[in-house]
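thought: user wants a sequence for this fold. calling inverse folding tool.
action: design(structure=
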């Protein structure tokens, strides 16, 4: 389990608190959404969860232990908590897709047969087998996103952080990512998603945490959080369309588009 205990953080360059007094429990086996307007501190919080940044006060804990910031400890942490960055080019280094995905495993000195098996599984999970033999520069943005996700999955870390997984994708690409997320969740992984795609968060997350100007406004069950109209407005966000339909048209509170369409 990944959690933060009253963490606050400011960047050296400016003297303002970017995050203040954040206590969050990211429960194992659950999908947690992290939402907030631009600049509310979501990416910074991800960097703190990964140990890339260190809080000024408070602590981040993995498996009940406060993070240690030595190289070796962080190396261990990466095998438990992995991230998919918003921009796949930040994450992909090789032109050969299979080599790129295999990189971290070969770095660990893993047996080559096991490397190939894991790469194959990760490619299947993100539905990328059919383009896996093309050079990376021939791929679309959406395909690169899927390769980046495969690169994070291959380590088989129990916890995966995804920063804006659907940003820049067309409707089909977005739907593919939703299906991939559902497959990852079905494997029992702990998933944390930071996104401005409110409808995605509503559809796939069990719990949601709302950040506003570096503070945690609320945290809890997805539907309960999104039903709080004033709070969502205060955070500079909008409610998911299924929640608006419920509040404005007095329809049942559907969780998924297909539940509404099939009703
Ligand atoms: N490297 C940095 N140095 C100084 N300030 C930074 C740095 N990175 C982010 N900030 C500031 O920290 C605050 C939070 O930024 P952050 O990127 O964490 O927010 P965010 O919620 O992820 O935003 P967005 O939704 O736009 O991606 C902002 O005021 C931003 O200007």
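)
observation: tool returned 263 residues.
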């Amino acid at each position: 389990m990944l959690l933060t205990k009253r963490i606050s953080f400011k960047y050296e360059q400016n003297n303002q608190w970017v995050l203040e007094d954040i206590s969050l429990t990211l429960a194992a086996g659950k999908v947690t959404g992290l939402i907030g307007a631009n600049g509310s501190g979501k990416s910074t919080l991800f960097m703190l969860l990964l140990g890339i940044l260190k809080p000024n006060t408070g602590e981040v804990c993995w498996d009940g232990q406060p993070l240690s910031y030595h190289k070796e400890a962080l190396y261990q942490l990466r095998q438990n908590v992995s991230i998919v960055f918003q921009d796949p080019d930040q994450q992909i280094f090789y032109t050969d897709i299979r080599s790129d995905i295999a990189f971290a495993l070969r770095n660990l000195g893993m047996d080559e047969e096991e490397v190939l098996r894991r790469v194959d599984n990760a490619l299947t999970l993100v539905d990328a087998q059919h383009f896996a033999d093309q050079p990376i520069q021939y791929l679309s943005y959406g395909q690169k996103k899927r390769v980046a996700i495969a690169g994070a999955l291959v380590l088989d870390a129990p916890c995966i952080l995804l920063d804006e997984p659907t940003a820049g994708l067309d409707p089909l690409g977005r739907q593919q990512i939703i299906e991939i997320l559902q497959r990852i969740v079905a494997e029992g992984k702990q998933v944390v998603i930071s996104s401005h795609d409110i409808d995605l968060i509503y559809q796939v997350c069990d719990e949601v945490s709302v950040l506003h100007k570096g503070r945690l406004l609320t945290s809890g069950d997805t539907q309960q959080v999104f039903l709080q109209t004033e709070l969502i407005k205060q955070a500079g966000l909008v409610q998911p369309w299924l929640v608006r339909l419920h509040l404005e048209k007095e329809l049942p509170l559907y969780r998924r588009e297909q539940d509404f369409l099939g009703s």
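thought: summarizing for user.
answer: Here is the designed sequence. The longest strand covers residues 2-9.
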